[in-house]
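Onboarding guide, step 5: your first structure request.
Type a short instruction followed by the sequence, for example:

Predict the 3D structure of this protein.
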Amino acid sequence: MGFAKTIREFPRTFWTANTMELFERWAWYGIFIILPLYLTGSIDDGALGFSQNQKGILMGTVTGILYFLPLFTGAIADRYGYKKVLVISYIILSIGYLSLGYVSSYTSVYLVFLFVALGAGLFKPVISATVAKTSEGKNSSLGFGIFYMIVNIGAFVGPIVASQSREISWKYPFMISAVAILINLILVLVFYKEPPREKDDTPLGASMIKILKNIWVAISDLKFLVFLIIIVGFWTMYNQLFFSLPVFIEQWVNTSAMYEAIHSFWPWLAEKAGTPQQTINPEMIVNIDALYIVLFQVLISSLIMKYKPINTIIAGFLISSIGIGLWFITQNGFYLFMTIFIFAIGEMSSSPRVIEYIGKIAPKDKVALYMGAYYLPFSIGNILAGIISGPVYEKISDKIELIKLEVADRGMQIPEISKTFTKNDFLEKASQMLDMNQAELTNYLWTNYHPYNFWIVVTGIGMLTTLSLFAYDRILRSKKG
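The system replies with structure tokens like these:
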């Protein structure tokens, strides 16, 4: 009864904000998890046919900018009002998502995705501030617990809908994300009530300069700066879940075998989760990470709360690194369910406690300044993740590039990929020239070129991050002593 009473104490705006967060995350992850496949897929399948390098640079730089924007867009919302900024954000996002499904040149896709990032950058600080202002005091922990759960529900549902709809047309996921945002536009216009806020009449330019000064004050603390630099490594590693894993599964894992195995004991699940071609789309496999978080975050959080934040962050980074290192010891897709679970345990143990740790190391009068700098490692980590997922993946793991090496090594020539000679044409031609079917060609390249070495690189980043954070903590302890 006490819990039910507490739930009823939250105002309507709190629930409106959480509902909008659900639809926004649905829209974002519905697109983001399929984006690497859409960018690099063959144009005769309705995708764009970009290279892995182009994909990595586009996703990395744009999402890096997205996570940098909230440092400044919060000041815009404080000055002009949360409701106005949300309306502008939703208009930008709905136009951006819809347009992404219709532009095709690299420059136009880049610019439209940048437009989407602007909308998302406006949205992020407003919705977090709304939840904070409508769940203050004793309800704060529960309020943000509900908010975090809603985030992951949206992140889980969006990719499922996108995966199913892209089987009809690649344009459909973008349309659905645009509709999800339009629902938010209705919610903000009809149900959202501006929470109390201090009116800020400071000129916008002066506010921006103040923000930059505040960031400088925060990162002038060497201890804090070193911590931020170290956790850049975690986000560089973590983002390969979205930037690289879907493409790797598409290129190297025989998901038809997974479909047949699931169908043998649960036909309904196989048919619902699978495709008409009796395969499992990569994004459906990757999306199990979000399911694990929805199911186990509360349990993991309850188990680790008695330990120091820095200890669980270090342990979480280590566990996630091990999970990634185990991702592709074999080409067996079922193995991924276990290794992604290991990765998710590390994520659930570390990610939520980073904010808590920052609150502990920040001077009491500068907690807000330090929290404001929290987005910096997100931003830089995304940019570096794009580099790892782009040129590094292309050199080590991209099937197209490895076929080019094999063909050249045999003294053969194969036409360059173009609008008239697609990636599917390239793979078919290579199969004919090398006298192997597609499955044989995949196994040959796996055995002789070891594309799974990419995950050794990613694991190395995670392990270096873990060791660096461990050393950082030990040095701080010795100085205290």
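Each response can be followed by summary notes, for example: The domain at 201-398+451-481 is CATH 1.20.1250.20 (Growth Hormone; Chain: A;).
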